[in-house]
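Quick question about two entries, pasted in order.
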Amino acid sequence: MKSALTALLAICLCLPLMGDGYDGIRAKQALKNARAGFDLAQYELGYYYYHGKGVRKNHKEAVKWYRKAAEQGYARAQCSLGYMYAIGEGVPQDFKEAVKWYRKAVDQGHAGAQSNLGYAYSHGQGVLEDKKEAVKWYRKAAEQGHARGQHNLAGCYFHGQGVLKDNMTAY
C-alpha cells in the first residue's frame, strides 16, 4: 500500500511539470526513455513539444528531440526535422537542410517524406523546380496510401503539371 501511495504521489507531483492528465504522463515517460537514448521516445517527445501535448509547446525543444532520433536513423523523425527546416519553426528556415532530411527518410521508404520531397521539387524549395520529379515523389507517396501525396498527385493531373492534364485521372 505504501509503494502505491508513493507512486501516486510521484505522479501527482510530476503532472504540473509535464502537463495534466494522460498526455502529461505519456510525456514524462517519453522523456525518461528519450534520455535513455530510445529513438522512438525521442521522436515522440519532439512531437509532444511541437504540439504542446503534455508539455508546453516549444518548437526549439521539438527540434532538439527530433534531431536526436533523426541522427539515429529514425525515418519519422527525419521527416519531421525536415519539415521544421522547411517551415522555419524552432530553426531558421533552410530548404536545402529540409531536403537533406527528407532524402534520409525517403531512403527508408517514408511516404510523408516522399510527399514533402515532391512538394520541394514542385515549388523549387531547396532543389531546382522540376514538376516531373515532383510527380515521381507524389506518386511514390500515393502508392503507399499517403493522403497528401494522393491529393498533390491529383492536383498535378488536374493542372497538367509534370504530367499531361487528365481530369479523369485527377479524380
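Here is the second entry:
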Amino acid sequence: MHCPLCGHDNLEGLDRCEVCEGDLASADVESFRRRLSEGVLGDPLEELGSLNPAVVAPEDTLDKALPLMRQDRRGGVLIQAGEKVVGIFTEHDLVRRVPPDADPSSVVMASVMTPTPHCYSVHDTVAHALNGMTAWGNRHLPIVDDEERLVGFVSVRRVLRHLRDRCLGAA
C-alpha cells in the first residue's frame, strides 16, 4: 500500500508507513469506502461481466429448464417469446410453484414462471440493481441493451463479487 503522505510503497497490512510513520489504516478505510461508493453509484451493470442467460420458451417444459440451471450452477432461466423476456424461473419458483411429485416433462414453463420480470439496462448502475433486488425481492435480474434485447443475467452473488473485487482492488 502506498503511503498517502510520502508515497512509499509499504507491505500490505501495515498500520503505519515504514518511512514517515504516517497512518495507513485510516487511509485504507477511506480508500475502501471510496471504491465501494464509486462501485455502487457509478459502475454500470455491463461492467459486471453478466452471465450469458439460459433461455427457454414459455411452451417448453421443466425438463428443458432444469438441466440449464444445473449447468454452470445457474440460479434461474429466463423465459423468452421471440425477442421479448416474458418471465423468469428461479430455484425459488421451483420450490414454491412446482409440486414435489410433478413430472418435469409435463410442467410447462408458462405455468410456473414469474411473469413479466423487471428488466434492467446495461447502463443502469449497481445501485439500481441493488434497489430493485431489495424492492422487488429479486435475486436475479435480466439485463437488456438499448433495443431491449436480452444480453445478460445478473445475480445478487455476481453483484456482491463485483463489489468485493472492486473494494479490495482486484477489479
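Reply: The radius of gyration is 21 Å. The beta strands are 55-56, 76-81, 84-90, 114-115, 120-121, 140-144, 150-155. Hope that helps.
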